[in-house]
Amino acid sequence: MTNRYAIAPDGGSITCKVCGLVSYNKNDVEMKFCGHCNVFHDDEERNEILHDSSLSDMVKRAMVRFWRRIHEIERERR
Ligand SMILES: [Zn+2]
Question: What is the pLDDT of residues 56-66, one digit of tens each?
Fold first, then answer.
């Protein structure tokens, strides 16, 4: 799905080619996440959860927060 997003040459931002959103958030760049589409461009497993109609939006938002936090912790460890 590399045609759905573009990362700046300096790695400082990610542009979603689906909605046009540009994020300068490090986590979004590294996780290839679009906060507008609520899509991980590179992670089908997470997208399946985000598009599961049996889950409420509240649960999905909580999952996104959780994945972002996990990612932050992993990045701080490096
Ligand atoms: Zn988007």
Answer: 999 999 999 99
Please name the residues in contact with 71: beta carbons below 8 A apart, sequence gap of 6 or more.
27, 30, 31
Ligand 1 mean position to 62 CA, how many Å? Answer: 19
**pTM (2 d.p.):** 0.85
Ligand 1 centroid, distance to 78 Cα (angstroms): 28
**Cα-to-centroid distance, 9 and ligand 1 (Å):** 19
- Is beta strand 22-23 parallel, antiparallel or unpaired with respect to 14-16? antiparallel
CA 39 to centroid of ligand 1, rounded, Å = 7
DSSP run (H or E) holding 23? strand 22-23
Domain definitions of the chain by residue range: 2-77
Whether the CB-CB separation of 24 and 13 falls below 8 Å is answered with yes
